[in-house]
Amino acid sequence: MDIEEDEEAPILLGRPFLTTGKALIDMETGEIKFKVDGNEVMFNLNNMVQPKKMLECYQIDLVDTLVKEQQETSPPGVERVLVQLIEQEEQGEMRKQT
To answer: What are phi and psi of 42, to 5 degrees?
Structure first.
């Protein structure tokens, strides 16, 4: 693969990827060897950096904030419909009286 290396992004390889080239997995030594187009790459799983534990989930915080902003700027759908119906009824009654 011809891409920029990013040490922060983990590479997850599943079975479909392993079938695209020759892959040799040696669990005793903790090594994975890939052979693709005559090139061979070896990874030592024992030396790999473990992923950091995520202590907070910022996506949920962001969603909660956006939902709150939306609720503050527009009335709920049911309330809006009821207000419109009441206004229409009042206008209809006013027309009948005149």
So the answer is: -120, 135
